[in-house]
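Fold it.
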Amino acid sequence: GMVGDIEAIRVQADEELLPLPDESLDVILSNLSLHWINDVPGTLIQMRKALRPDGLLLASMLGGDTLYEMRHSMLMAELEREGGVSPRVSPMAGVSDAGSLL
């Protein structure tokens, strides 16, 4: 299909098993989905393989202390009411950890 004057393909797939041929894409856009993936390094490897040598990955993800106050409040409320806690929010990568993956 077309996006403006640019020919584009849209892929909706499981991020951990990308159906993309090697060196087939100029750009990959990933907005706020990488933090849900169990194998972020494996997914980034697949993305890199799918990009052409001069390709571009534009990605964003939640990380570090995102939602810290909410996570802390939920844990404290559950501890007070239930006498124990369960994680309700996925773990978040720190900035230096995410940078090391690149």
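The two ends are 30 Å apart (CA to CA).
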